[in-house]
Amino acid sequence: MHEKYFTTGEFAKMCNVEKHVLFHYDNIDLFKPAIINENGYRYYSYNQYFTFYVIINLKMLGMSLRDIKVYLQQRNPSLLLKLLEEKSLEVAEKIKWFQDLQKTIETMKITTTEALNSDDTICLKALPCEIIFKSDNIENASGKSFASFMQEYTRFSKNLDITIQESIGSILSVKNLRNKNFFTLSYLYIKSDSFIKGKTVLRKAGMYLCGYFKGSYEDTDKMYDKLLNYADNNGINLGEYSFEEYLISDIAEKEPENYVTKIMIETL
Predict the structure, then answer these.
(1) Which Gene3D superfamilies match (predicted)?
(2) CA nearest 210: which of 191, 192, 230, 193?
């Protein structure tokens, strides 16, 4: 046998794959040996090394073996350019997804650290302006049933392509809080890095009455009672809305009594 041919084992080692990969590609007529002698031994040529790496690279681009087979049978420069353009768009989408995921991870690290360093102190804080996506008004739905709230919650997440829902906060009206309607939400929201006309709004900068509540969501009324009493006792005029952020939730803590909710009420 001429030296430019390799046994299956030699060719597999050269390509850094297991021999069964070559057997499988042969069985599905994707990549066959250059020679099969009368004893059934398979031999691959040196030139096939480059064809094999075309297959590997196409797999890396996310193509199925079936699509790779079709491409190899029809390949030409124009088809390659079309394929590369399609895959370029797919890669750009994946890069964006990973960048968003990285931002979410960093945000969760910051909020979890903030929660671990928090205490039960109530105070006024100057908060900067925040850009937020705000849901449609859900006051009537959230007041009716938890199921109605969850329907709006999942719809809001889907519309914004949110996969880690712990990043979503809630907005409650101070009027409802004054009327002891502590669990009637007005809106859901999520922070944004950029202003998008018609989609995002500004949570105004200013002084907010802030507190951290450690415990189940169903018990946040206890913290609201404290916040409202603090405002009344200290002559603090409250604004229109309260904002809730869930710093520690079920993604980090299995016991609801250890959840941490940050509450920020607008002041005038």
Answers:
(1) 1.10.1660.10, Regulatory factor, effector binding domain (3.20.80.10)
(2) 230
